[in-house]
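Researcher: Quick test of sequence recovery. Tokens follow.
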């Protein structure tokens, strides 16, 4: 599956525990990443400062669902279940 253009759910719903540029303590769940553009694109994509967890994440129907809204729900649920 390819990422849904303009989705950005993976940059909002999950927490990121590793440091990011401008976010030295990571990102809390449900908070927009500082590097998520207004078009919901990652400004760190393919750049050295991008966290490994972000680079390793791949779009999959199990976490992306059929829409951005469903992806936000699924990822928030997974975040809660894996705390």
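Model:
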């Amino acid at each position: 599956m390819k990422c849904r253009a303009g989705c950005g759910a993976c940059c909002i719903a999950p927490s990121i525990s590793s440091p990011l540029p401008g976010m030295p303590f990571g990102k809390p769940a449900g908070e927009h990443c500082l590097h998520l553009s207004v078009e919901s694109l990652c400004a760190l994509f393919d750049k050295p400062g991008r966290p490994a967890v972000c680079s390793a994440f791949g779009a999959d129907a199990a976490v992306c669902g059929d829409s951005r809204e469903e992806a936000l729900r699924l990822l928030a649920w997974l975040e809660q279940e894996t705390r």
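The CA atoms of residues 19 and 26 lie 5 Å apart.
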